[in-house]
């Protein structure tokens, strides 16, 4: 079928009877006519097809791979490396670095009084989950913070 779409999708919302998938590369949102057993935070490499007759909802035709990504705040403070990166940044700056091994590290410098709000923003941002979904070996996102510094660790 030419109207099928293949890609990597993150499940942004799931209920017993339906689910919403977002294409992590193109950003297109697909509402499923029925939930095939997925939960919010799941990542699917899948093929979707529009549901006839109106083709406003979709169904999962095939799932090539499936994984779940956990996004959570950590009680651990940022590492020495993360603190050093933040010390070299101005408030509002973001540095992205590859982690030794697999994954990625993001260090944000924020106003000290806004640190908790910044952590909440990162945890609630669909972009955090979509970025993790684009990284093949990442299945966990850990957010660490201390006043003025937020580190986002994309981990295997």
Describe this structure in words.
With 156 residues, this protein is of the alpha+beta class. It has two domains: 5-68, Beta Barrel (OB fold (Dihydrolipoamide Acetyltransferase, E2P)), CATH 2.40.50; 70-155, no CATH class. Helices cover 17% and strands 44% of the residues. The chain has three helices and ten strands; from the N terminus they run E-E-E-E-E-E-H-E-E-H-H-E-E. It has helices spanning 80-87, 115-124, 126-134; strands at residues 5-14, 19-23, 29-32, 42-50, 58-68, 70-73, 94-98, 104-109, 140-146, 149-155. The strands form two sheets. Strands 3-2-1-4-5 form a five-stranded antiparallel sheet, with helices on one face. A five-stranded mixed sheet has the order 6-9-10-8-7, sandwiched between helices. The longest helix has 10 residues, at 115-124. It starts with a strand and ends with a strand. 30% of the residues are buried. The model has no long low-confidence stretch (mean pLDDT 94).
């Amino acid at each position: 079928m030419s109207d099928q779409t293949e890609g990597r999708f993150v499940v942004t919302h799931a209920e017993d009877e339906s689910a919403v998938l977002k294409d992590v590369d193109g950003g297109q949102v697909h509402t499923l006519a029925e939930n095939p057993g997925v939960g919010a935070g799941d990542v699917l490499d899948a093929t979707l097809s529009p549901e006839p007759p109106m083709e406003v909802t979709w169904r999962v035709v095939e799932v090539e791979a499936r994984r779940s990504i956990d996004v959570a705040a950590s009680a651990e403070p940022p590492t020495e490396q993360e603190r050093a990166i933040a010390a070299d940044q101005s408030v509002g700056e973001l540095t992205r670095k590859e982690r030794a091994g697999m994954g990625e590290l993001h260090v944000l410098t924020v106003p000290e009084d806004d640190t908790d709000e910044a952590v909440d923003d990162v945890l609630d941002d669909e972009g955090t989950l979509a970025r993790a979904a684009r990284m093949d070996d990442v299945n966990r996102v850990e957010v660490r913070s201390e006043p003025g510094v937020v580190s986002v660790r994309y981990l295997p």
